[in-house]
Design goal:
By secondary structure, the protein is an alpha+beta fold. Helix content is 51%, strand content 13%. It has 23 helices and 20 strands. Strands 12, 13, 14, 17, 18, 19 and 20 form a 7-stranded antiparallel beta sheet that branches. It has a 5-stranded mixed beta sheet with strand order 4-3-5-7-6, with helices on both faces. It has a 4-stranded antiparallel beta sheet with strand order 8-9-10-16, covered by helices on one side. The N and C termini lie far apart (112 Å). The N terminus is likely disordered.
């Protein structure tokens, strides 16, 4: 007899016999596998939270907009409850409207918090829990024996280690081709989609309206996580339809007909209501739709597929689904297919084959959306469809494993659980092995940007000393610059009344990507990601005279600013980590340096259009004036400037206004040129104001320059005229001497409907 412990084998319960615990601890044998799974997942959650708590990173890029959405939502809730009930706004119309309110369930479901660590934790852990729940739901009916349930636990733990769930801090390590980073919702929508799939399939199998309704609601919720959720809804409807048709052909009794009829009605009602609320809100406004299409177009333009791209894509597939798991899914699915095909029961074969047809349909939808509709570089857009396919094929996977488990249960269980054990070990390690992370396809980086975050906070301190917001132009668009910029943006989100810094890239997803001198010169600092210190590398970049694409443009600016003489360019090194922060001291010197760089290379048309030659000679001025409207020639603004001519061009993107100016005396160009877009009543409906000269240089009498103002089509809705004038804050307006005008001759009126030659 064992001392202190005995078991009663003839009971439905495992009862550890401790005198003090007997009356409290009763665990059913059939419940034990599920409880062990819950304990294992809870342990994983603790390890994840501990690891994530090491970071000081703030939300960046997309994850910042999710935090922004949550904060604005909870601010609205607070006002509604305590202060201003009349200010309630639909969550779909709360800014940023490009982010739907379903994201709040993952980001900040219990109220906004200044510390984003729990947000990052939920973005990692919640999708794992939902996906495991989907696996359990779809497979539980097949697990009759206790051995089957233990095998299911092992499979759940195995698939809980899919690499796509474990991408933490953006890593600069070249071995990590991370498809995502914490704070994104791609894994969240993917796991919700998998849960919806499991529910609707179980609903068909059991002819259960309750399960099907739950699946339809869950599927519709995907639309309120990302716009691509609409395509997920289509995929899940396809899955249900295929399973429903097969079920009806095999068993077309009155109960099945009633179930299918009610389910179709529910699909129509729930999907219809979801689409109605989404399409009638700002979430699917014309502006948001145009922005989305423009962003995809720019993404495709900047993404060039080559040999390096193929290697990166292969690496991203491994870091998303893991080649080891893809091979495992293929082999187990193939074994199950061959096994079922040899069965004599034709109906059974049909039932077990419907998952292959469904999975193929979903796979093709996802593949089209990923490769064709968006871009090959964004594999994360395929995640929802990948997890749906896994759920569809999971009964086959479980079936194959159970066949092997009849003889090799311990071996199969060990193989399945090993990735989770290795992952847990890595999470416990202070510096997880890069090699083992790469084998698993995960990125557990956390707390690696301490120096860069301190560097960014020093800029915030500088902003508070100057008592104004500062601006930084980043030459790179990599993760590390995003982490730096996120510090300033998040500080402004938390404390809008305090000073911080804004961040600007040459890539903005609105206009075609290029470096714009006007944007560079309008900033206080320049930021270089990993400055080039190898002169030979820089020389090789400088050898290429033709700058054919944005990538080449970025490399050239990076090398130029890494190796140039900063004194000659009006720059000074403010601080340096893996990032070099340059302070703009003299904007005139910097502009001269930029102009010299432009003169030495052959640039793309988009670059030349974005950086026209501002300072012109007499001959160039005459050629431009010849194109101008006679009624708008030689108009004086006070005793300071003469507008020699102005003309407009309508383009696919909107309206371009070109102006030729001359200075009437030696003076600094410190004024603002205001450009008002006016309706028929001369009310301002939009503005396109700009500085005369971002460097505010002193010009001589007679100096000539050429301004180009581009106005987007979205700003021209209802526009009938353009108002032009010169303004010096806080209240000085320069008076014109002639020409069509209002505001006591302070604003010229350029009528868009009239023939300006008259």
């Amino acid at each position: 007899m064992h001392s202190g412990l005995s078991y009663k084998e003839n009971s439905n319960y495992i009862r550890p016999v401790y005198p003090s615990l007997t009356m409290y601890l009763k665990i059913k044998k059939e419940d034990l596998p599920l409880q062990i799974l819950i304990i294992a997942l809870a342990t994983l959650g603790i390890l994840l939270f501990h690891r994530i708590s090491l970071t000081e990173q703030t939300p960046i890029w997309d994850s910042f907009t999710y935090a922004q959405k949550a904060k604005n939502f909870w601010d609205t809730v607070q006002k509604f409850q305590f202060l201003e009930p009349q200010t309630w706004v639909s969550p779909l119309n709360i800014e940023p409207t490009t982010r739907p309110p379903g994201t709040i369930l993952m980001s900040y479901p219990f109220g906004f918090s200044d510390k984003p660590n729990k947000f990052f934790f939920r973005s990692i852990f919640l999708p794992i829990i939902l996906f495991v729940a989907a696996i359990w739901i779809i497979a539980k009916p097949y697990c009759v024996t206790l051995k089957d349930q233990w095998l299911l636990v092992a499979l759940c733990l195995a698939f809980a280690t899919l690499p796509l769930f474990y991408h933490f801090e953006p890593s600069i390590n070249s071995r990590f081709a991370s498809p995502t980073y914490w704070g994104l919702v791609d894994n969240f929508i993917a796991s919700v989609a998998s849960l919806a799939t499991a529910l609707v399939i179980r609903g068909v199998q059991e002819a259960s309206i309750r399960l099907t309704f739950s699946g339809i609601i869950t599927s519709t919720f995907c639309l309120f996580i990302k716009p691509s959720g609409g395509l997920v809804m289509v995929a899940i409807l396809l899955v249900w339809s295929i399973h429903g048709i097969v079920r009806y052909r095999l068993q077309h009794n009155i109960n099945i007909r009633k179930y299918l009829t009610f389910s179709i009605v529910i699909f129509i009602l729930v999907y219809g209501i979801g689409l109605f609320f989404a399409l009638t809100s700002n979430y699917f406004s014309i502006g948001n739709m145009v922005y989305g299409k423009t962003a995809v177009r720019i993404l495709k333009q900047e993404s060039v597929f080559n040999k390096d791209s193929l290697q990166i894509l292969i690496a991203k597939i491994h870091m998303s689904l893991g080649w080891h798991w893809l091979i495992f899914i293929f082999l187990t699915g193939l074994f199950s297919f061959l096994n079922v095909s040899n069965q004599a029961n034709i109906n059974s074969a049909k039932i077990l084959s419907v998952d292959l047809i469904s999975a193929l349909g979903v796979f093709l939808i996802g593949l089209w959306f990923w490769i064709v509709a968006t871009d090959y570089s964004q594999i994360r857009y395929f995640f929802p469809f990948a997890l749906i396919c896994i759920i569809l094929l999971f009964p086959r996977i479980r079936h194959s494993c159970s066949k092997f488990a009849d003889r090799y249960l311990k071996v199969i269980t060990t193989i399945l659980v090993f990735p989770m054990l290795l992952l847990s070990f890595l999470l416990l390690t202070h510096n997880p092995s890069i090699h083992f992370q790469h084998i698993l396809g995960v990125n557990l980086t956390s707390g690696s940007f301490t120096n860069e975050i301190k560097q960014a906070k020093s800029v915030i301190e500088d902003a508070n000393k100057r008592k104004r917001d500062l601006t930084i132009y980043s030459l790179g668009t990599g993760y590390i610059t995003g982490v730096f910029g996120g510090v300033g943006l998040y500080e402004k989100l938390l404390h809008p009344n305090l000073n911080s810094f804004d961040f600007q890239y040459p890539l903005n997803w609105i206009t075609e990507s290029t470096f714009r001198f006007s944007e560079i010169l309008s900033n206080d600092y320049l930021l270089i990601d990993k400055p080039i210190k190898n002169e030979l590398k820089a020389i090789n970049i400088f050898k290429n005279i033709e700058v054919s694409d944005f990538a080449s443009e970025t490399n050239l600016f990076h090398a130029w600013l890494s190796t140039m003489n900063y004194d000659d360019a009006g720059l000074a090194v403010e601080s340096e980590t893996s990032l070099r922060l340059l302070k703009i001291i003299d904007k005139v010197k910097l502009e001269n340096a930029l102009n010299q760089l432009r003169s030495r290379y052959k640039w793309r048309k988009v670059f030349l259009d974005a950086n026209p030659v501002k300072w012109i000679d007499v001959e160039t001025a005459k050629a431009l004036i010849a194109k101008s409207y006679p009624v708008f020639r030689d108009i004086r603004f006070g005793k300071q400037f003469t507008l020699l001519g102005v003309f407009t061009n309508h383009t696919e993107d909107g309206l371009t206004i070109e102006l030729v100016w001359q200075s009437l005396k030696d003076q600094p160009l410190k004024y603002l040129n205001f450009v008002h877009i006016l309706d028929a009543s001369k009310n301002i409906i939009a503005q396109a104001d700009y500085e005369q000269d971002s460097a505010k240089r002193v010009v001589n009498k007679g100096t000539l320059w050429h301004d180009i103002v581009k106005i987007k089509t979205s700003k021209l809705n209802g526009a009938k005229a353009i108002g032009l004038g010169i303004y010096l804050p806080p209240s000085t307006l320069l008076v014109t001497d002639h020409g069509p005008s209002d505001w006591n001759k302070n604003r010229l009126l350029l009528n868009l409907d009239m023939n300006q030659s008259q």
